[in-house]
Amino acid sequence: MRIVLVGPPGVGKGTQSELLTERFGAVPLSSGAIFRSEIEARTDLGEMAKRYIDQGRLVPNGVTIQMMAKRMRSAEVLKHGFILDGFPRTVDQAIALDQMLEDIEQPLDGVVSIEVDAEVVVARLSGRIGCTRCGAIYHKVTKPPKRDWICDQCNSPLFVRDDDQPETIRERLRVFDENTAPVIGHYEELGLVRRIDGDRDPEVVFGDIVRALGL
Ligand SMILES: [Zn+2]
What we know:
By secondary structure, this protein is of the alpha/beta class. It is 50% helix and 15% strand. Helix 2 packs across helix 4, helix 3 (44-54) packs antiparallel against helix 4 (61-72) and helix 4 runs parallel beside helix 6.
């Protein structure tokens, strides 16, 4: 299985990635994790990426793609396939990825776009409350603390993080749509996009993904 998983924050992409890994053994690949492992291993590519990151600059596509290519040529990924998450973010990256996968003769099986209404995401994420002292995360509806606004673990007061304020969430969703629409458009032209309704139980969503990919 070789797929790209696309979806806004709060849509449950992490859960689906885990379920796909469990069932099919595909290796989850995120550009962030690949950067970290190359940097830790102090490879030439890792050192190059680190220079950009340290300067607060974006790692150039060429470097990112080379790191991806290296990981995709590993025995584990060639055997079990991959689930790309958070990459490609731009059409340029998508085109570079297509080229690289063609070079190693490992074409994509599909691009799974998990979609939910913005307000559903806002409701899900804006219910989150966190402890500033120990970092525990609760949810007003799905995982409330035993006492209102008090951490179960350390008895500190709980807060809504800035990231989880409804307005911040709406802005993140807007930026996500703006960046992702062209990438989805690119893969639409190649007939690879499978749109999945993400506003249901994770198991139901998973069943749809499996069916949509013909697995
Ligand atoms: Zn706490």
